[in-house]
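Exercise 3.2. Students should predict the tertiary structure of the chain below and write it as structure tokens, then compare their answer with the key that follows.

Predict this chain's 3D structure.
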Amino acid sequence: MNAHNQVGQAPVKTPFYYGWVIVLIAGLSVFFSGPGQTYSVSIFIESYISDFEYSRSFVSALYSTATLIAGLTLFMVGRLVDRLGQRIMMASVGLLLAVACFWNSFMIGPVMMFLGFFMLRLFGQGSMTLIPNTLVPQWFIGKRGRALSVMAIGGFLSSALLPPLNTWLINEFGWRTTWTIWGVALAVIFVPLAIFLVRNQPKDIGEIPDGTPKHKDLENNPNVEVNEENWTLSEAMKTRAFWLILFCVSVPALVNTGVTFHLVSIVQGKGLSNELAALVLTLMAVIGFPITFVVGYLVDRISVHYVLAITFAGHILALFILLQVNSTTGIILYGVVWGFVNGFERIVLSIVWPNYFGREHLGSIKGLAQTIMVLGSAFGPLPFGLYFDWFGGYEGILWIMILFPFLAMVFSLLSPKPSYQAYHG
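Answer key:
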């Protein structure tokens, strides 16, 4: 009886469903993934090139290779999430990302740079976003889209604040001190909160998803059911939808990482200032933030693959605008459109997996998907860097990149939710 009471006790008493506390910590995890995200790392690149006298393609190659290897190992994190739970993994990964930041502050050569990139990408961009995206769906079914929208606030705050904040910190204190500051923040703020407040599932504190047995939001939701059908990874891999969606989720990682990593150089090539590049990243986050709530509402009521197709149509439009940019007004317009697209993709790329394949094996399924996304981001910067070194610009590579969201848009329309009954029929 005592054991039962201990298991059923929340770490803090709240007048509302404890799942929203989980959403808060999940959002904080996404925020603190920032040091490992390209929008943050890209601000350091010019300092690396200047201080170490490396070529842009060499730094791009180090970053891409490190990201590739991180992606290949990320699936193991997903399996560990299923085995050990989100609480242990979130605290452990947060601490390891802090170590990665300290490592980067002591960087003295290409080997350390490579290992620093690897740790940032594995623990930051990969794990610190994977884990919260497997945690929140455990706590919500009927309000899953809206819960993920709230969680996404952390990502938008991170992408809005880190580029200008890193720029200021580097200018004031240097890039080594900036990395140290992020390491301390992770170890002192995030890790203790994850240990104290996170619980893996509602049943750990005597709750159930959404906080009520039959939440009214389930009634008109075409995407999920009260008793979700839980696919294993091997079962999911035998469906066409799994592979088409897997391609789709890799496209934003590929395209966005390539553009973001070289955004300062792209903007400079159009005769615009470095500050405008940071402004674009901030504008993307500010615009995308309210859009997530609209998308969270949509995916709770409209089939996910339609919303996914809309997302990739937006990607095509954004890239076309970037190709035409030659003024401050044009780059701001690009930032606005990119913000709309980013607001869509932050929700739809997260919700498609639990909605299609359930929660029970989500760590393994999302882990594989996150691996593909990291692999996609690994191949983004290098083609841009090589094209620039060869041809002195980015126009041709941007036209090539438009092909990927076009294919993803088509694949999305061909990927409705698979039937569990038909698979087992």
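Discussion points: The chain has 18 helices and no strands. Residues 230 and 358 are 4 Å apart (CA to CA).
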